[in-house]
Please model this.
Amino acid sequence: MTPDSWQLATILVGGVATIAIYSFLIKENSLYRFFEHLFIGIAAGYGPVYAIRTNLWPRILEPMLGLDIMHFPDGTVSHSYNPLLMLYLVPMLFGMLYYFIYSRRFSWLAKLVIGFSLGASAGLTFKGFFAEIIPQIVTSFRPLVVFEGENLLGMESFSNTVFIVTLLSVMYYFFFSFRVSGKVDKGISFTGRWLMMTCFGAYFGSTVMARMALLVERLEFLIIDWWGALGGIINSTVA
Amino acid sequence: MEGGYRQRLVKFFTFLGGVYFVFEFLMPQAILKSWGIAERHEAISLGFVAIGLVAFGLGIINLFMIHGSKIVFRRKGWLNSIALLTGLLMMVTFSAYDWRLDLRHEINSRDAVVVAEFARDIVMVNADAERRASVPPLPVRLQFLAESAEKLRATTAEAFTNEAVAAQTRANRDVAVAVTNISESLNVLQESVQRLNAADNDEARLAAAQAISANASSLAFLKKQYGRAVTADSYGKRVYSFLFNALFVSLGSAMFSLLGVYIAAAAYRAFRIRTVESSLMMLAALIVMLGQIPFGRWLYSELPEIRAWLLEVPNAAATRAIGFGALVASLVLAFRMWFSIESDKFSGDK
Amino acid sequence: MAFSFAALDRRIVYGLVLLCLALPIIFEYSLPPSRMKAADKLYQLVEAIPPGPGKIALLAFDFGPSTRAENEVQAEVLMEHLMRRRVPVAVFSLYPQAVDFLDAIPKRLAKKLTSEMPGERWEYGVDWVNLGYRAGTALFIQSIPKAENLAEVFGKDAEGTRLSDLPAFKGIKDFKQIVLVGEVTGLAGMFNLYVQFFQSAEYIPPLVHGCTSITIPEAYNYLDSGQLKGLLEGLAGAAWYSELLEVANPARTLDSAPMRNTATGIGHMIIIALVLLGNLSAIAVRFRSKKA
Model:
């Protein structure tokens, strides 16, 4: 097969695969199921080799085995072997405990490494929490009345007021620690709910764009690439 | 009690997992530096990554167990399971093949990398009095460099002047570009070697060594580029690219794009404007939708501005308020996870 | 029996949606996109980066086929701008499914720019470097800011070449030499990793984001707090950025973002119409049942 025919095959099969998935819109069918399974298989097979290829091998195994040491023509070496690298065997062997998950008797050993990983991600959460939240708290303190020199900036003042009211009322809405009973309490809570709905409206509007974009990309492929390739084949066959 | 012992061990390891990052976060940078932890932080982090990396086979084993048994016992959908495992095996095989090709290119360019590193090492060691004592004298090293660089030039020139390369050059434009670049690079390398041989003082010799390092380094890169150009049309590469583009990308994109039509069905079946809340939601959705599309401006030219204000002010504030709650909750959850407070089921014996 | 819109076969609606979306593609019709202020901000930020060596922009393409419809065009326009400005770019991903995009997008752009400006060259190793897939997500990201030598942390590129041998990384050591970090993703939680961990006590590189439309409202929170310095809002953001590049470079070959954006706009109109029809139909049904 020439490179061009590979490309043609890629487009044609890609189109068939897309149509097979879209056939689900009419009804559930075996063609859809077949391609769905094929996709899961390919997706699952994609990651493992790259995990080894770009991470485990060059970053850990190669230095640990000393394969990155270069021997120079004058008998010297690029760098001496660092025996501390052998310490990487500890996390690697520890990580191997994951595989005990398949053993009924020793599955608790897998829990050690799963627990360790959960602990590590919890530890990282402490670190990440402050970096994320502090700038947001700081920038939430803003003047309700904004001046530039002696001029009152009406729009800025209005926006800041809306911002503060929204922030506080939505936060208030989520205070579940005590009962909301008074008229003022309920009023703030309602305001929070309404403003939150405005926010959810924005989420809905944005979601529409995301979903439509996905659909348009596939249609563009089907109409321009796939149909174009198919038309080319039909034309050359007829000619 | 055996169960209790295991449970305590799991809790201990969960706590242990978090200790380093909490410690590293709380301790001042100056202390971490003085204890040598700051400079080893990357290596320690890599150790944590290594734990997860060796688990790469879990997903594959799971799929083989579930779908393999379906195939063996001819359970419902076994043909689909064959498709799944075939896809998986093909992808693993061809991505491994792709890696093999890259390793081959790396080996083929190793001679140039060694010369580049050797030249760089000579320059760097010469500037470091302590290390200078442990290597041969500078003139000896430079002599070795001149010889090895010349040998690299000669062997590469010879390897790239045979009929096989000429045929590839005629057939493939990328190969032709790589071969031309290599030939130019060899000329530059030759000039640098001549400069090294002709230099009459150490400063000039070291400058020539530095030039050789750069030349050999770029030659190594070009040799790899040549290798990649030669194998770009190989059967394995083509199959890999076919699996990726025809199946993986097409199926993945199509699968998720189905949501586009579902949202349309949901729009006329489920989105009912009955309350103040739903009216507000619809109004905001309308402004956002119309403000971000080309047609919006036809209705009202300020719509993009209004949309931006809606997102910047009430939306950002409401999202932030919700985010504060979520972030505080994640911190509390992290605490509880770290101290295994609510994970008795997990750390338990079963 | 009276007709109820809600009882309409959903497949008719599916067909209608697909047909309407296909029209601008069939007729290759595109309209100028809406102005996106957040994308303007990003454009100005890239314009302000002085070209030349001694600095690097990091672009993380953390997306796979599921969100490539929006993320791929975003990655393309942002990287194109950086390449035009001759700011060396290092692309990498924390998501294995992005591996082929890391390879294909820069090559495609280099080809496009070379054909637009025949006298100039955009080369691998000089103008861009592919760092490949990096495992460890948060663990990897938080290890970068403390690095004393960036080339050593990243080690080798995706094809096994040592970064210190590549011109783009020559003289790049310090975290402060990262002039821009671009995170293009549709994955939940991925963007937050950069907000949380990609900073040192002394320096926070300007973070910009190409997000799928679903996460636009969330991203605005970070834009307001200053944690984000620029944003490409889904396909509309990419289309506007493409327009900005178009205006600045009249010889530029048009990409598909404006056409896709127009088709997406039709999709929006259909959704609005369907919501209105659904509600009108519900009102009509209620009115009829009250009457009966």
